[in-house]
Amino acid sequence: MWPNTFFLLKVIFILNVNAILVLDPLVSNNALDVSLYENVLDSEECARQLTYIVNDDTMLLMQFLDSGVRTPRGILGGNLRDMGNYFQCLGIKKEVEEMSIEGKYCVVEVPLRQDEIELPSLPILPEIPQIPWPNITWPPMNFSQNVILDDNQLNGLKLFTRGRNNLNILLGDNPEQSLLRVAEDSPISHARLELALCLPKVCSPKNVVQAVTPNAIGNLKLEESFCRLSNDKPWVAADTVAVVIFSLIGLLIILSTGYDVRHSVILEKDPKQANTLYTSFSVYTNSRKFFTFRPNPNALHCLDGVRSIAMLWVILGHSFSTQMSFVPANPLEMVEFMTSFTSLWLTSATITVDTFFMISGLLLVYTTASKLSHMSLIKNLHLFYLNRLLRMFPILATAILMQASFQNRMTDGPYWFIVAWSTNNCRQYWWSTLLYVQNLLNPPTMCLGHAWYLAIDMQLYILSPIVLFWVLGRSKKSAWTALTAALMIVVTASTIYNFLNDFQSSPVSLSRTPEDSVRYMRNYYIFTLPRAAPFFVGMLFGYAIHSCNGKATRLSKPLVALLWTLAGATSTVICISTYYTIQPDWDNQTVDSILNSIMRPAWAASIAWLTFACAKGYGGPINWILSLHIFKILGRLSYAMYIIHYPLVYIINATTIAPIHFSVEYSFHRFMINFTVTVIVSYLVTIFIDLPCTRLIGMVLGGKKDKKINDEKKNDEIRKNDDVEPAIDITNLKKPQIENNQNGIRH
């Protein structure tokens, strides 16, 4: 046993080390204390501790070995990762002979192809005396020749690594760092062993390999991915700010709820007589309001179902896809599933974001066309924008502050650095997220990477008055011309843009290089122009639904059947196309460019027709299903669910202590956990923060009527022509209302 144990110990250490730092040591508010890892290194103390561990404390030696390197289990199935025992390693602590021996957990990557990879080495630390190990006969080793995988395994690993890299970029990983990890010049350069080491905290891998033996393993190259120490999460200003703000909110909730309960329950007074300001943060009142649904004849009830199902699809897709970031124990089976026809419901899930863009544009026109004239919109444009910004702010700011502080401290795990990297981004670039420009200014380091959707949605909302000016309070001919022209301009511009840039047509494309994926993500997937068409499709259908309000809409049965068939066939073809474009042998740039140009507006048109049909009595059982009461609850939570679910999924995944066997059944179990936790947390955030802030915003913006605006309203000419909609008071826009959603995922 001893020779094999020590042989494994020596195999994983390194003569040339290339450290890939996830965090910037020059930044003072890092999520993990990078300087701590450097400050604890002491080569002389390392030699003393290693000498003691090897010669005098066999049990302590076994703790280090037991917590560290092993041969990855399931290597024939593509698993090249062993995660050791994270918590056992960091739990090692022993005081002896004026030494404090503590464990340090490190993860290193060993490329299987050693002879074709040149890695820069770190400066060599001062050499330490070689430790006299037990007399062991070391077997000869040629790493690149002894590690043999067949062609199917190599191809599968290559596809998995490429898909993982593309998904990491999609899900918010650092593109530059991802590119460093995938070289294309070698047939197996993509394949790397990821091994966990447990060392004394004063040692580095360089120290240990010098102490063990300088020549036993030849010129084995290895990349040091990261190291972790206990208590390596420093307290920073963001933590203090979070404690103060959330403590203040908690105090307001206690006081407000106490006042409300005393007034309405103990004294049994009319709740309407309670002070509105005092009950703003009341859990009792806000919970009642949340579960109270006022009848609204103009509400598009089916949109609650559309929004809820789209949100379920997003969470389901992220529950599956984020597993690739943490590498399952059977990646070859995962690749086989991803490239199979049966995975279409998952691989095509990214199209669902265009559903939200469509809903946002539809509700923008539908809820304003009967309220504003073109002149009142221009005169009160600041209120038009302010209302939207304030409605989006509470939950988004809460999620940013949580990610920058508490979520980094919730728990821990061997791959917590992914959460720490997101925390760093929020500490550095929180402002670009709140200004909705992070997809343009700092795409590689976005705070809440999935919030790129909100940035594009807000940018389109800011541009929308250019079209709304010709829609509100004008003739139908003017409105239809403006909406159609805007859609055609956007589609034409994005088509030209797509054909000039030759993008791939799927976020995960196994036939493309990582460089192509980075370019696709930055310049297409999170860029405003190529994602704008669904928003304008929604605006057009929103005006169509508005124009038919109060009027009998008569469509022939053959026409309705034809439109349903076209919508169903279009959405089906779009989903099926993902199966072909994700394949490793796909190579048709023309089709990619065509898909990038038309599939998103086509999908939006299909969902928009569904909404129109349900609103006008042509939905049948589909309308009944989408209008179920349960979807109203999820619809009200949808915005919070979108913002909150993604960080929670990563927190749950980052606590994984061993590679997990991928299966559809297990992934559904993870989805149910992610969904349940997301709903609970979203409800609490909505009740504790969003609804109170919404009530306060309503009091501030809607508490006083602007006499000047009312006078202007009275002086507006209300034409009697049926083609013109009357203008109404802009103050209706000031009151944030749950019933009038102006965002695809905002309640």
UniProtKB/TrEMBL annotation:
Keywords: Membrane, Signal, Transmembrane, Transmembrane helix
Coiled-coil region(s): none
Transmembrane regions listed in the UniProt entry: 235-255, 310-329, 349-369, 389-406, 451-472, 479-500, 524-546, 558-582, 602-619, 639-662, 668-689
Domain Nose resistant-to-fluoxetine protein N-terminal: start-end pairs: 43-229
Signal peptide location: 1-19
Pfam families listed in its UniProt record: Acyl_transf_3, NRF
Cross-referenced PANTHER family: O-ACYLTRANSFERASE, O-ACYLTRANSFERASE LIKE PROTEIN
Record protein name field: Nose resistant-to-fluoxetine protein N-terminal domain-containing protein
Organism per entry: Chilo suppressalis (Asiatic rice borer moth)
